[in-house]
């Protein structure tokens, strides 16, 4: 049986049975996340289950979302899909959260031992954002024509430089092959210097 998640809840109480929970949240409810998005359309869906592990209360599940971002290559809108598993452990304070093993993501509860469902997922959604938003393939990107043009120009430039380097190498070899061109020691002039 899958139950809808309350907007604010005590994880300790929800962990007392093995019920699976689900939630659908509009992205416009995630205020901090919106700063990174092109717009607040779409929603996040998650299904999860609470459990106990020794003294800790855990929640594990799967979340999906579709973000509208701005491609940093062509500056046009793009879709970025998230479909990730998660596992959190709840902590009563920041001090307790620092003691949580590194393999778990801690979530700090408020003073009454509760948490808002938005606060449960917002940090995780922000972490899933790409460092640099770009279309997955060049074919999807409006800038793909420019990229091909730049790549061709670079290739031509590299070929020209290679030809110049070969020509310079030949000249230096021909100059160095003469017996008159003996390499001079820059300190030879100091031998004739009168220091007395």
Task: Describe what this molecule looks like in 3D.
The protein is 29% helix and 30% strand. It has 196 residues and is of the alpha/beta class. It folds into 2 domains: 2-136, no CATH class; 143-174. Strands 1-3-4-5-6-7 form a 6-stranded mixed β-sheet. Mean pLDDT is 83; it is low at 147-151.
Q: Strands across the major sheet, in which order?
A: 1-3-4-5-6-7
Helix content: 25-40%
Q: What structural class results from the helix and strand content?
A: alpha/beta
- How many strand units? 8
Overall form: elongated
Rg is: 32 Å
Structure annotation, total helices: 5
Domain unit count? 2
Q: Tell me about the biggest sheet?
A: 6 strands, mixed
Unreliably modeled segments: 147-151
Give me some keywords for this one.
196 residues; alpha/beta; 2 domains; 6-stranded mixed beta sheet; two-stranded antiparallel ribbon; 30% strand; elongated
Helix and strand arrangement:
Blueprint: E1 2-4, E2 8-9, H1 11-14, E3 20-26, H2 31-34, E4 43-53, E5 56-70, E6 77-91, H3 94-98, E7 105-108, E8 115-116, H4 117-127, H5 144-176
Parallel strand pairs: 1-3, 6-7
Antiparallel strand pairs: 2-8, 3-4, 4-5, 5-6
Short description:
Helices cover about 30% and strands about 30% of the residues. It is of the alpha/beta class and about 200 residues long.
